[in-house]
Amino acid sequence: LWTGLLAEWLNVVLKWLFFGERPFWWIHESGLIRKEPLMLRQFSVSCETGPGDPSGHCMVTGAALWPVVTALTELASTHSRRLAVKLMPFVAYALLLLAVGLSRVFVLAHFPHQVVGGILAGVALGWGLQAQAPAAHSPAFFVTTALALLLGSLALRSLILAAGIDIDW
């Protein structure tokens, strides 16, 4: 849960900084389709209105499932010496991330590079936080960190708005 929370916070901050376009809107605004307008139907899953870089679905999934995958790998290693069995959790993890990424591209919520960026950021965050076991910290640590994240994001938002940049474009 802690890793997922940090991944979600970092994703919002990165979206404020990268301002990634979304394919559904970009196709109509780019001017590349001049002859006949591309007939796209909008569905609730493709109605994303904010920035799209990096993919939050991929980033949070990649980060939040990393501890689960490493725990399953350790469990598999205690019960089997076969490399295929030990690697099975990582294969399932990679296939799940691929499926999430492809689905986000399919519904025109993200460009492929946004999906790849989300996956890489999520895996890196999950890997980087695995040494920071949440059980080793006191509740005061979590309250302090959550407050720091809140104040940090409010400060960053204020700086961006003061610079005249519309983060709700």
Write the layout of secondary structure elements.
Elements lengths: L1 H17 L4 H7 L26 H24 L3 H24 L5 H18 L9 H24 L7
Shape: flat
Q: Give start-end ranges of low-pLDDT stretches.
A: none
How much is the average pLDDT? Answer: 85
Q: What oligomeric state is this?
A: single chain
Order of helices and strands: HHHHHH
Number of strands: 0
Helix content range of the residues, please? Answer: 55-70%
The rounded distance between the terminal residues' Cα atoms is: 30 Å
The total count of helices amounts to 6
Alpha-beta content class: mainly alpha
Largest sheet: none
How many structural domains?
2
Kindly describe this structure.
With 169 residues, this protein is mostly helical. It is built from 6 helices and no strands. The protein folds into 2 domains: 1-9 and 52-133, no CATH class; 137-169. The protein has helices at residues 2-18, 23-29, 56-79, 83-106, 112-129, 139-162. α3 (56-79) runs antiparallel to α4 (83-106). It is flat and about 60 Å long. This is glucose-6-phosphatase. Residues 3-130 form the Phosphatidic acid phosphatase type 2/haloperoxidase domain. Pathway: Carbohydrate biosynthesis; gluconeogenesis. It is found in: Endoplasmic reticulum membrane.
